[in-house]
TrEMBL record:
Residues 759-771, 780-805 have a biased composition (Polar residues). Gene3D superfamilies: Leucine-rich Repeat Variant. This is Transport and golgi organization 6 homolog. SUPFAM superfamilies: ARM repeat. Belongs to the Tango6 family. Residues 3-290 form the TANGO6 N-terminal domain. Residues 759-834 are annotated as: Disordered. Residues 814-826 have a biased composition (Gly residues). It comes from Dicentrarchus labrax (European seabass). Residues 840-956, 1047-1079 form the RNA polymerase II assembly factor Rtp1 C-terminal domain. Residues 291-581 form the TANGO6 HEAT repeat domain. It comes from the Eukaryota. GO terms for biological process: protein secretion.
Length: 1100
């Protein structure tokens, strides 16, 4: 029966090659003929007759061909709906199948009778399209809905056909069509077909029927709709809007509301026309109702954004949606509107779907910022207060037995994440035109409070005074949570850190400095975590606030307090280190130094007050107690300041603290001002306090360094003008004449903007300007002057003993300095005088207890060995023992000289010397006077000698290196990790020089390195093993594929294993470097360099 009805509908709507009006008449006539002649259509004819009798709207005496065709379509659709309703009712009343016929899991459940095939749905869709195009859209008032002419070319033809003449009973025909469509929608299978494509048209018809103002003379009394019919249409519209998916409803209402006329070239998608005023008001009211209902904000966002891709148009849509959400409708009170909408805006931040979360966060961010800026009272009440509630509860928690006092994990997590997303960093720190990268949300719910705060403040990236002020109140709590997460593994660490950095980088400098003082403990912390409460780890990787167990031991409590304060300072310094591109760390450091200077000047007055006897008789007990407590408080504040400065200097790089020249000048001003404190006393800083003297010397050296810089500008001299007062005070009041002279000269250079250049300006930058170091420098100068080596090695110039000393020019010129103006410059190893001491004298001085004398003697002996001195050749055994003895000396100036001497001996007499050195490297020092407790250090020093000897072998490495390879391979199994690492390092230096001589050793070498890489526990040894492969590939270069052909694959797999599995980052880096070397080798092998060359062949 269903198929027969659909066949009749197909006959009615089949296309014919005639004009539209003639085709409609011909199709209806052919259908009526088939209904009367064909027996298969008897049931269809009967159902059509029943529907016709019941339809009061049916009229057979009309001459309008289109309306007659629409009536026929409506009759057949109602007949189909009646038949499907009856069949569906019978299907529901049919009892379950008997137990004898059990259903198997593979069997599908029986389909209900209203299930239609794809072809049947297509036939019904065609009939519905005819009904809408011919029976509904032509009767809509101008501006109501989308006109047919703007939909398709067929719509233009239909519009001309229907509107060509006067149309009677417009309202009644529209009511009839709409009523039939609503009857069809009572069946779910037909409702899907009606509303998926024609929801907007049905809504437009209901709006016109129920709400269009009546115009006098427009219709006759019979054609007018009664009040009951209009009320029925209103109720039907209300029911329809409540049943359909809300984003679709909102989208259709926005279309019905129309838009402004667009001027310009027409696009592929026609612009919306201007709707009548009554329809615009109605759609606005309906949209407001949709918005204020539960989940209304989400529905509006989904309707407008749809499936965005994150491009620029989506950003504009998000801003438009945010403006819509912020604007209160005229028919609603502001308080009621924001009370219902603001919580839904915050809920937009909590979606888990990636694309949905990106779009919703954009809208929520803009909406929150707009509400807080435009409606601060409502924003504070309905947005910021709920958002910060978990953090505020952290400060007001009390131990009163109430379970609500503690903050759960899901609350704190959501709060922090929302702050993070709303401030600008969670999503790629986006501004209004950046693409978004979603920060994957965590499963934990406590982390929710921390996460809510993060979204609004960090993702929005728009500094707002209200938001910054609100964040300032809970900043200590977020910092306390950050310190807690640094002690544990928590996903809240990064959001907390980004919130703190965002706040410190966007707030005003004065407020940021005050916040840093509060976080460092130099000011009171009224808004920190409540007493007797602390953060504890949560079950999902977050944190929760819980009651802290009381500590009965006072010492343990004091230790916890002190260690907690120290940890807070370290965490704060880590934050400041991240602000390396800002001036805030340097400004904070200089402010603390200025405060330290002011306290130093006030300390003298307090000391004099302490020396005076306190007249207790004239004071009350309370006054005495307050006076003593005041002193204790001031001293505790000074200790706290010193602690902050100490941690800051230790943890933060100088380039971060003083990143600008103005900050360096401020730092020097602080140093000089502190040095000027107490100059009028008998015991000035240069006399009684060596620390202050060294500080002053450093400050003067910094000033001289700044003044000796190239091309100082007028701005630089202007900023250094602040140094004039303290330099003048030093030049007049400092007790030392040298300091007075330097200060006076520096002051003159600054005052004249470099026009005056004293001769000793460069010398003031050297350590010799410090009186405390003159004695030591003088001793080193004497020792270096006694040196006779004319050609120093590169290692000598970099050794700790090669301190450069500057001497004044002999011709009365300026002091020697760095640059072309320097006079003579000597070092501990570069004296142009020839050696004048005999070999025996050098042997005696090599045993001298004076360090400089012994070191110089060892250097002279080294030069004699290199030059082949006959006495040194004959007494090489004595020289060897002498170098080995000095190798165990604790002073680096001595044992480095001994290392150089042994390297020279090994280079001159390799067979004998290398054998002795290899024995000492394997088994420790063999001298009778050797200290067995320092055997490990001596072995490592011998390893250094062997490494230098390996580098010096050159082409003799294949001949002399075999014994060394064996010893180094044995050293990789030494119990001490340092010896294993040293053996591997020496092995790498040697193997890269063996070339083809390495062939027989490749298997053993590969097995050793592979085993160490995969089984060694110490990261240092694994690094050395991987570095051996790097040096091996680098030394062999293009020969690697020939020499290492059998083990190259094993080495490659070992390197890939390190990259994938090794936990040490440095080892992974070494492996990547080795893989790059191997890649270069293989590229040169596979793709050899193409050379352009001519080949001349002489033909016979």
């Amino acid at each position: 029966m269903t198929a027969a009805v659909l066949s009749a509908i197909r006959l009615l709507t089949k296309p014919l090659g005639e004009t539209l009006s003639a085709a409609l008449r011909a199709n209806r006539a052919f259908l009526l003929q088939q209904l009367h002649s064909e027996r298969s259509f008897e049931e269809v004819k009967r159902l059509r007759g029943e529907v016709m009798v019941a339809a009061e709207w049916f009229s057979s005496n009309t001459e309008d061909a289109t309306w007659v065709f629409v009536q026929e379509c409506l009759l057949l659709l109602l007949a189909l709906a009646r038949h499907l309703s009856v069949e569906l009712e019978l299907f529901k009343q049919t009892p379950a199948p008997s137990t004898a016929k059990l259903c198997t899991p593979e069997m599908a459940p029986p389909l209900p009778p209203d299930t239609l095939s794809v072809t049947q749905q297509k036939t019904l869709g065609t009939a519905l399209q005819f009904v809408i195009s011919l029976g509904l859209c032509p009767y809509l008032a101008p501006g109501v809905g989308v006109p047919l002419a703007r939909r398709s070319a067929f719509g233009v033809m239909v519009e001309k056909l229907v509107c060509g003449g006067a149309v009677p009973a417009v309202g009644r025909r529209l009511y009839t069509t709409t009523n039939v469509l609503l009857q069809l929608s009572e069946l779910s299978s037909l409702a899907t077909l009606v509303f998926t494509r024609h929801l907007g048209d049905v809504m437009a018809a209901l709006c016109q029927l129920g709400y269009q103002p009546h115009r006098a003379g427009s219709d006759t009394e019979e054609e007018k709709l009664s009040a009951e019919e209009r009320q029925t249409c209103r109720e039907a519209l209300k029911s329809l809007l409540g049943k359909v998916y809300q984003p679709i409803v909102i989208k259709e209402l926005l279309i019905l509301q129309g838009g402004p006329k667009q001027v310009g070239p027409s696009s592929s998608r026609a612009a919306l026309g201007s709707a009548p005023a009554w329809l615009r008001r109605l759609c606005g009211q309906l949209l407001s109702e949709r918005l204020m209902q539960p989940n209304g904000v989400q529905a509006v966002v989904r309707a407008i954004l749809g499936g965005g891709t994150g491009d620029e148009s989506d950003w504009r849509k998000c801003e438009s949606v945010a403006k819509i959400l912020v604007t209160c409708p005229q028919q609603s009170s502001a308080d009621s509107y924001y009370r219902q909408v603001c919580p839904q805006i915050l809920d937009l931040l909590h979606f888990k779907d990636k694309l949905t979360a990106q779009q919703f966060q954009r809208v929520a961010t803009r909406a929150v910022l707009s509400v807080v800026q435009e409606k601060p009272s409502f924003g504070q009440q309905y947005l910021l207060t709920p958002l910060f509630a978990p953090l505020h509860r952290c400060t007001t928690a009390s131990n009163d037995g109430d379970s609500q006092a503690t903050v759960e994990e899901w609350e704190l997590t959501r709060c922090i994440e929302d702050i993070y997303k709303s401030s600008g960093i969670c999503i790629c720190i986006y501004h209004s035109r950046c693409n978004i990268q979603h920060h994957s949300p965590h499963k934990c719910f406590w982390c929710s409070c921390v996460s809510c705060c993060c979204q609004i403040w960090v993702v929005g990236n728009t500094p707002s005074a209200s938001l910054l002020k609100a964040l300032e109140q809970v900043l200590p709590v977020i910092f306390a949570l950050f310190c807690f997460t640094k002690q544990n593994v928590s996903h809240l660490r990064a959001p907390c850190q980004e919130i703190l950095l965002w706040y410190l980088s966007h707030i005003e400098a004065s407020v940021a400095l005050s916040a840093l003082r509060q976080l460092s403990g130099l000011q009171g912390q009224e808004t920190t975590v409540a007493a007797d409460f602390h953060f504890t780890p949560g079950s999902d990787g977050g944190a929760r606030l819980s009651l802290q167990e009381s500590c009965s031991d006072e010492d343990d409590a004091l230790y916890e307090k002190v260690s907690g304060e120290q940890w807070r300072l370290e965490c704060l310094m880590q934050l400041l280190a991240e602000l390396k591109d800002y001036d805030l760390p340097g400004d904070f450091f200089l402010e603390l130094l200025q405060e330290l200077t002011s306290w130093a000047s006030a300390e003298d007055d307090e000391e004099e007050e302490d020396k005076q006897e306190l007249d207790i008789s004239a004071m009350t007990l309370l006054e005495v107690e307050q006076r003593l407590l005041g002193r204790a408080v001031r001293r505790s504040q000074r200790l706290a300041l010193l602690q902050v400065l100490a941690v800051m200097v230790e943890s933060v790089q100088p380039t971060v603290l003083l990143r600008k020249s103005t900050q360096v000048v401020d730092f020097i001003v602080s140093l000089l001002q502190r040095a000027c404190v107490g100059l009028d006393q008998a015991t000035g800083p240069g006399l009684g306090n060596p620390v202050e003297s060294q500080t002053l010397s450093m400050g003067i050296g910094l000033v001289a360094t700044l003044l000796s810089g190239p091309q100082l500008s007028a701005e630089d001299y202007s900023s250094m003008s602040r140094l004039l007062p303290p330099l003048e005070a030093l030049s007049q009041m400092h007790p030392e004449a040298v300091i007075q002279e330097l200060a006076s000269n520096l002051r003159a250079v600054i005052a004249t903007h470099g026009a005056y250049q004293p001769e000793n300006l460069t010398a003031s930058t050297q350590p010799s300007s410090n009186p405390a170091l003159r004695k030591k420098q003088k001793m080193q100068t004497e020792a270096n002057n006694s040196q006779t080596s004319p050609h120093p090695s590169p290692q000598d110039s970099n050794s700790p003993g090669s301190t450069q000393i500057r001497h004044p020019a002999s011709s009365g010129g300026s002091a020697a300095g760095v640059g072309p103006k320097a006079g003579g410059r000597t070092s501990g190893t570069s004296n142009s005088c020839p050696p004048t001491k005999t070999f025996s004298d050098c042997l005696l001085e090599a045993c001298d207890p004076d360090v400089p004398t012994r070191a110089v003697a060892l250097r002279v002996l080294t030069q004699m060995v290199k030059k082949g001195n006959p006495e040194a050749v004959q007494a090489q055994e004595k020289v060897l023992v002498l170098f080995l003895e000095n190798l165990e000396h604790e002073d680096s100036f001595i044992y480095l000289s001994a290392i150089q001497g042994l390297s020279a001996l090994a280079d001159s007499y390799p067979e004998r010397i290398l054998e002795r050195l290899l024995k000492d490297f394997q088994h420790g020092p063999s001298l009778p006077t050797s200290n067995k407790e320092h055997s490990l250090e001596t072995r490592l020093k011998v390893g250094e000698v062997l490494m230098r000897a390996s580098r010096a072998m050159g082409e003799l490495a294949p001949h002399l290196g075999r014994p060394l390879v064996a010893v180094f391979l044995q050293g990789t199994r030494d119990p001490d990790q340092s010896v294993r690492a040293s053996s591997l390092s020496n092995l790498g230096e040697l193997c890269q020089r063996l070339d083809y001589a390495l062939g027989p050793l490749t298997q053993e070498l590969s097995s050793c390195l592979t085993a160490l890489i995969k089984t060694e526990k110490e990261a240092e040894v694994r690094r050395a093993a991987v570095h051996v492969i790097t040096l091996l590939l680098r030394g062999l270069s293009d020969k690697s594929t020939q020499v290492l052909s059998d083990v190259l694959l094993d080495l490659y797999r070992a390197l890939k294993w390190v990259v994938r599995s090794d936990p040490d980052d440095v080892t992974v880096l070494h492996a990547q470097l080795a893989l790059e070397e191997l890649s270069d080798v293989m590229k040169r092998l596979i793709f050899p360099e193409q050379k352009l060359e001519k080949k001349i062949v002489v033909l016979p």
